[in-house]
Amino acid sequence: MGEDKEKSRTVVTINNQQYTIVSKEGSDYVNKVAELVNNKMRELKELNPYLDSTKLAVLTAVNIGSEYIHLLSQLEDEKKDED
Questions:
Q1: Positive or negative CA dihedral for 20, 23, 26, 28?
Q2: Distance of alpha carbon 26 from alpha carbon 30, whole angstroms
Q3: Which residues belong to the signal peptide in this entry (predicted)?
């Protein structure tokens, strides 16, 4: 069986709130993810300053999910082009 990584705790700040993230990934990885989320939230908050935190969080998740699906689609297209 594969080697089990030990979980570690990383404290991050997203949208001026602190969160403790427990992950098998290293702190550098967790910080990169938190930075991505924080930057996207900041970007959307600038466009919609009256959004409450819940709506901002959902809009952020939808935007990041959309970007992820676009990237997957691009990768699939590139793979088809290679075949």
A1: negative
A2: 6
A3: none
